Every structure is written in C-alpha cells, then in structure tokens.
Amino acid sequence: MRISNEDMLRETDLPFDKAPPYRIKAVEYSIPTTREKRKEIMQEYGYSGRLLPAKYVFINMVTDSGTGALSDRQWSAMMEGDESYFNCRSYEIFEETCQAFTKMPYIIPSHQGRSAEAPIYEIFVKPGDKVPSNTHFTTTSTWAFQRGAEPVDLICPDYLDEENYSWFKGNMNLEKFEDYFIEYAEKIPLVELVVPNNLNGGQAVSMENIKNVRAIIDKYNKIDTQLYLDIARISENAWIIKSHEPGYKDKSCLGIVNEMLSYADGCHMSAKKGGLVNMGGFIALRNKIFWQRMHPKVIRTDGFITYGGLAGRDLESLAVGLIEGVNDYYLQDRQRQVDYFANACQKRGIHILEPASCFAVYINAGKCLPHLDHTQGPATCLSAQAYIEGGFASTAMDSLQRGRIDANNPQDSSKRIKAPYELIRCAIPRRTYYEPHYDWAAECLFRAIEWGDKLPAFKPIVDDRPPLELSEIGLHTFFDDYEPVSPLP
Ligand code: F0G
Question: Is 114 in the pocket of ligand 1 (CB under 6 A)?
C-alpha cells in the first residue's frame, strides 16, 4: 500500500537531517571504462557533456532535468494511469494536485517546460515587446525572440560580487526593474521570475523580492502586465526561504510555495526537475479568459487540454512526484546532498560559487584554471578533463560557450561577451547518487585541476552548419562545437 502524503510529513525523531527519508529498491549499472578509452571518447565526441554518449558516463551531472529516480509510489500510481483520450481520470488527480500546489484554478498539462512556455508567449507577447526577468532560462528567452520581442535580464548586484555570500543572489535587480518598468510599461506584457535562477549560479530568489516585483508592477501597471513564475525548481527555492529568510522557519515548504505563487498571475513548470518525473510539465493561471485563449495553442501541437502531450500514467506520476518533491524531509535531504558535494569540492581546494545552490554546485573554473582567460574556455576544458579523470560529466557554462550573443549583432559568432563567472554546472539528479559518488566527482575535478597550466585553451570549431535563424540564436549552445588547441593530458 502507498504511504499517504500526510504520513510522509509526520513528526519524527528519525535522523532525516542526516540520512534520506527513503531507501533504494532498483539500481542502475554503469559500464566500466579506462582512462585511455575516455580520452578517445572525449576526442571522438567533441569534448562536451552534451555530446558524450551517456552509456560511457559514470557520474552524470550534466543536468538534473528528468534524470532523477522515481519512487515506488510513482511506479504504482503509473499502473493506475487512465489512457482515455478525453478527460481521463488521471487528469482529475493531476489537476487537483497542481491546484493544491499552485493555489491557482486553471491548469494545463504539457509534455515539458518549454511546451508550457509556448502558449504563454503566444497569447501575451508580440513584436516590439520587452520581457524582463531576473535571468531568462534559454527557452523563455528564445520564445521572446521568436515572438519578435526582447528578453531582458536584470541580474541583482549581489550575484556579480564574488565576495557576497548572501542567500538570495538570484533576485531580480529591483532598482533596475523599477526604472525599466516605468520607462517601458506599455511594452511589457509579461514579467518572468525564475525561481531559483538557474543560469545565475542556481541562486535562490527571496519571498521579499517576489513581493516587491509584484508591488512595482501594480504601482506602474498600464497594460495589465502579467507576472509569471518559472517554477521548475520552486520547491527547492522554498527550502532556501525556509532555512534563511526571516519568518519562514516554521512554515512547510508547500505553504511557502503557495505564498510565492500568491503574488503571480500564473506560472509554468518543467516538472522534470522539482516534479520528480522523467517527463512532464504544466501551466497554472488565475484568469479564465487567458486559459481559454491558450487552449487552441495546446491542441495544435500537444493534443487535448487534459493531457498536453502526456500519457495518463505520466499525469499520475507527476501528481505523486510534485508532492513528494515539496516534502520537507525530502528537501532537507536534497540540500544535505548538495552541501555534501560542495564540501567535498571545497575540502580539495576547488573554487565553487558560494553559496552552493539548492540543486547544483557551480564550479568557478576561471579561478581553478587562472592561466586560461574568458576567451579560452576554462570551464569547457576543466569539464572535459574531469571526464577523462574519472567518467564524471558536467555542463560548462563559460564565456566561450554561453557568451556568444551580442545584443547588437546576435548572429556574429566571432565575438564573445564575458560572462560574470566561468562556471561548470554540476546539477544533481534527484534521489540518484550518494556520498561516495559526490566524493568521486570532486576527486575527478581535483585531479583535472592538478594538471594546472598543462591544460590547453579551447577554441570554437567552424563548421558548415546552416546558421541559426535570429529567433533561434539563443540555442547556439546546443550546436556550437569546441576543441582544445593541444591534446588534453
Ligand atoms: N525553465 C528552467 C528554469 C529550466 O531550467 C528549464 C530546463 C526549462 C525552463 C525548460 O524545461 O527542459 O522541461 O523544456 N532546464 C534544463 C537544464 C534543460 O538542464 O537546466 P524543459
């Protein structure tokens, strides 16, 4: 019998602050490799986590998206999936759960985050508009471009200060936002807050910041500007609020999520993260007319509005995963794992972006390999070498790979804008690894760094791909390739 959601939140004296509140039932084996083989693989597959065949990866922290382990409760719920085309029973369970999670009445399932973003951008955003954010995820900035609008990232100054260790460096820059909103109010149909801020070191956003963004919109609103939250990892952000923002320590993470969303008009979720599913997502909103306007957009590409591209069993799994993912004991354990990995890195002298976020550890590769400047891809290099050292895969987010978009000339691939930090994101899959894996991953990075200035610069490979369209330019990171100027050790 499935343990109920209420049972999973009972008061406890068990050591859930030190050990996971679950145990392991199925395991997944890895293919053994050797250093020589991994060197060959790296060379053959283009030196990046994105191109590596996953079968040759031992510890995979390229992404936390859809890569977690399902629970027995999810697998058993999947057996109850109702695969009727229209209005399946599984949709009712899904809808009820998403309503309880968001406290919003109107719900549309989607097969992942970006397909939930599509109808939102289609109904709200038009050419010439501007969409401010604390920092758009790649897909929402691409949707803005696709609509002929400009995505605008207003990063808070705390994030740019390396010595600042405050907990909410993912916030919107309120001063800039207020000025910008006053100047362009008639051109801003939508404001996006990404909680936490994935592309800025995974840093969390405070409740106060969300409240203030809402207050600014309300104060200067001219065209019914909508505030939407990108909530892929909202439960993990809620854990940081609970742990570090005054006034929240006695609230449940679900209560905190509800409050965060109470300031928004709507939200979209890639449930592949905090929803603890391998595939799925949804939109939630308050306005019935907007909801109805989204319907034909969903039917056009994802099928009927009660399944949105998902099977009945996916809806069941998501309904269970969303609540497991906001369970306080689970989130406490999740943070403990991230912190364990962060400590394993710091113990070895590896520079990380501090504080460690709630879902990933970001390695400051610029500081680890000071002989490589921002044009030479220190993170690209370190990430590749760490794979060679011990089968550990991660995502390089440095100026070489991410800094190619020049707002004035986005299709010019020769210029690189300097990123605030040269980072490697080590995103931690949920309920998947345990302490020895984190130690080994840190060891791989350490051994790679030990090569010091023997590690070569990387440069872009010019290939004969057709150029991306202007509206797709943000997706270049999926297609650009790089190689070292001399062989990796
Ligand atoms: N929003 C955020 C904040 C994300 O991190 C992602 C995906 C999406 C939206 C899009 O969701 O992939 O389900 O369509 N992030 C993954 C990552 C890919 O690795 O960070 P999706």
Answer: yes
DSSP, collapsed to helix, strand or coil, labels residue 387 as: helix
In the beta sheet, which residues pair with residue 460?
A: 482
What pLDDT does 412 receive?
64
Two tokens, residue 240: 């940081």
- Taking the C-alpha atoms of residue 193 and residue 226, their distance in angstroms, rounded to an integer, is 11
Beta strands in 123-238 (DSSP E): 130-133, 150-153, 190-194, 226-230
Specify which of 335-349, 409-423, 474-488 reaches the highest per-range mean pLDDT: 335-349
Instruction: Name the nearest CA neighbour of 298 among 102, 119, 65.
Output: 119
Question: Which residue pairs from 142-148 have beta carbons closer than 8 angstroms and sit at least 24 positions apart in sequence?
Answer: 142/471, 142/472, 142/474, 142/475, 143/114, 143/117, 143/118, 145/470, 145/471, 145/472, 145/473, 145/474, 146/121, 146/471, 146/472, 147/121, 147/122, 148/471
Ligand 1 lined by 270 (C-beta under 6 Å): yes
Ligand 1 mutation pick, 48, 64, 65, 428, max ligand atoms within 8 A of CB:
65
In our burial notation (b when 16+ CB lie closer than 10 A, e otherwise), range 282-319 reads bbbbbeeebbeebeebbeeebebbbbbbbbbbbbbbbb
* pLDDT per residue as tens digits for the range 147-188: 999 999 999 999 999 999 999 999 999 999 999 999 999 999
Is the pLDDT reported for residue 388 higher than 70? yes
Beta pairing, strands 190-194 & 226-230: parallel
433 is written with which tokens?
A: 């690894």
